[in-house]
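User: Can you help me understand a structure? I only have the sequence.
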Amino acid sequence: MKKHNFNAGPSILPRIAVENSAKAILDLNGIGLSLLEISHRSKDFQGILDETMALFKELLQIPAGYQVVFLGGGASMQFCMVPYNFLNRKAAYLETGVWAQKAIKEAKFFGEVNVVASSSDKNFTYIPKGYVVPADVDYFHITTNNTIYGSEIRTDIESPVPLVADMSSDILSRPVDISKYDLIYGGAQKNLGPAGVTFVIIKEEILSRVTRKIPTMLNYATHLKEPSLFNTPPVFAIYTCLETLRWIKGLGGVKVIEQMNLKKANLLYDTIDNSRMFTGTVEKESRSLMNICFVMKEQYKDKEDAFMEFAKTRGMIGIKGHRSVGGFRASTYNALPYESVQALVDAMNEFEKNNI
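Assistant: Let's start by predicting it. Here is the structure, written out as tokens:
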């Protein structure tokens, strides 16, 4: 039976990226060595790293004056690296979910944090609007997509101060105007590659803004000076990122990916909106294209476990909602095929027909 992988992360990867990575583990490009045992200082890996950086810049149209580095530690490490490097006195944060809250918590170790707006009053089911970013802060931090709650900032906002964004779960899902941001970071394990590598896109002129001494490994300047190679990088994860980027380019780039994602999301959201049994949990104008959250309507709540079991018999993997939300979550990342969303919709319709 075909499996349909809706896991929120680590998540589905392009099949060709998985297959080519598996081949490279056995023998990288015919050199007689496994990808897992080559030196990160070798010409073989330098070529991998160079192509990965070049493709990443090309697909996101990263302008001059920006650099890309691949680090360890996940987005969670960035929660402290950002304020360590840029927070002199005060920073502004938009609170839209758990990961934004975690970033706020870390920033408070380094200075004052102004939470300009929050959607916690409605369990993060919307993206706040109408807030004002103070002009006297060192930077403004946003989390563009909220994997747990299914909300997303899908436009590049205007900020009067340097803009920092956690794009862990929607990078490469839509075109982004990089010039509006001073730093973008994220864990790779959604749309870019496997767990184990973190990407950082950084505007060079934002460096050296704080007077405090920064530990070597937590200093962005360290990793820009020796691009991604100050210490041993996650070689395998970077290689799989390269294979994923090749796949995206082969499809036609990020604009094509965005249209594919819109088609998938529209299919599932239309089904939810027209259902007698299921209902969405996020305000429509704030809905994510990456993580689609829904629950049973009140009168059918007792059937949620039954639907979960039914969906498993149809090959659905990873659709259980986060414990803080409940219900169901379908993560429709770039590599998830339209056919998988159609299979989920068919399962929802069949279950509804047989249980109402």
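Now, to help you interpret it: Residues 254-273 form the longest helix (20 residues). The radius of gyration is 21 Å. Let me know which part you'd like to focus on.
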